[in-house]
Amino acid sequence: MSGSFWQHRSVFLTGLAIVACVRIGALGLGWESLGADPDAYRALAATWRDTGTLGRVDGEGHPVPSAYRPPLYPWVLSWFPVSETGESDRAWIAALHGVLGIATCFVTFQIGKQLGLSAWACVFAMVWVACDPILIRQSTLVMTETLATFLGAILWWCWLRDSEKFVRDRWDWRSLLLGLGMGLAVLCRPTALAWLVLWWGVALLQGRYRSVMMSALGVAALVVPWTVRNAIQFGTPVATTTHGGYTLYLANNPILYRHWSTSMSRQWDEDAFHAQWRVERSQSVGQDEIRQDRFAQSLAWSTIASDPRTFALGCAIRAGWLWALWPAPRQASPRIQVAIACWYSLAMGLAVLGGIRGIRTKEAFYRWLPGLLLVVSLTLVHSVYWSNMRMRAPAIPVVSLLAALGVCRLVLGYRRGVSQREDC
């Protein structure tokens, strides 16, 4: 990016004002949604704050430990006066999501600077993130996407700030700090584990063994205590959550496989599956989280083994659901579906152009690599586990920056014959 930040402060401040207006306005319009607790994070946080236990309260008022959800987001919420009813804590959660959302946009701007984009391109990317339909919607729900997206952006930015130092294989405190950040990401959304495995794999291929060991130490410093806690509470060292078996079974069950034999539509009989799962678990394993998780995994693998051809087809379908251009009919009205389809068609088209035309050198590819690996890791995980549009939320800053790079390529294409720059 040519020139210093202060030479472009008016461009940046204008973009930041747009970001703040969009996100604060979205939270205001989605105020009622903040009262809901679709994944029970608010309830977990309230129990943690009141009893010191991550879990739910039983009928007799006793806390029951749980590892069904990852711990970072409920831990953050537990610092606020949250309640299971959600009647008095919306302002606190709105403030948290507003700050995280605006901070994610700011970090996206900073990543663009490190990637060599112009001030206008950086502002384009950060405003695009602010206006993203998935991130706007998730910011009005008590769910992990807002925090996970922020953590993903921060990790990429931290890596870029010292990218030349990270290339060297050394016992470096920067790698340790990066590992701590990775650990937080895993404790927020376990899919981040696939991201860091790919990250480590590339680093090992480059011979950076010490750096990998230092970052692994940082991850272990946060993930191991969670694993030990689960071993004490449940007698099994759960490193992620007890939710994985269910999400694997949800993505690989006989009802869904029968649906795929006639259609790839996202409109399948989920109610029938949930009713079947309630009966299966109540008759076989009861309320024990560990046994439920293992039972669901066994049912999923049994379904996969019985029909590997449909499983292979399902991998492609689930990847398509992850990167769908519009929401399912039950999730939005036709007008909103069309508007979102236009948005993501433009975003994906520009992103593909930016990736093909803008990342040509080895140095540029290396700088983009963490973001690209995030896209790959999410696609790999959700081609096997349950998949929908919101689960690509952590990769939206990557797509937005690629789209900004695509705009740059278009602008430079129209300016042929004029003094051109290789960067944008």
Task: Give your account of this protein's structure.
The protein is mainly α and 424 residues long. The chain has one domain (5-414). The protein has 19 helices and 2 strands. It has a two-stranded antiparallel ribbon with strand order 1-2. The chain is globular and about 65 Å long. It starts with 8 loop residues before the first helix and ends in a 10-residue tail after the last helix.
Chain-wise SSE layout:
Layout (H helix, E strand, L loop, with lengths): L8 H21 L11 H11 L3 E3 L5 E3 L6 H6 L12 H26 L3 H13 L1 H7 L5 H17 L1 H5 L5 H16 L3 H14 L3 H26 L9 H8 L2 H7 L9 H15 L4 H18 L1 H15 L11 H25 L3 H21 L13 H19 L10
Antiparallel strand pairs: 1-2
Helix pairs in contact: 1-4, 1-5, 4-5, 4-7, 5-19, 7-9, 7-18, 9-11, 10-18, 12-15, 17-19
Considering the chains and any ligands shown, give keywords for the structure.
mainly alpha; two-stranded antiparallel ribbon; 68% helix; globular
Structural class: mainly alpha
Number of strands: 2
Q: What is the N-to-C succession of helices and strands?
A: HHEEHHHHHHHHHHHHHHHHH
The number of helical elements comes to 19
Radius of gyration: 22 Å
Report the biggest beta sheet as strand number plus sense, adding barrel if it closes. Answer: 2 strands, antiparallel
Strand content: under 5%
Q: Helicity, in percent?
A: 55-70%
Low-confidence stretches: none
How far the N terminus sits from the C terminus, by CA atoms, comes to: 7 Å
Average pLDDT, rounded to a whole number, is 91
- Overall outline: globular
Q: What's the number of structural domains?
A: 1
How are the strands ordered across the major sheet? 1-2
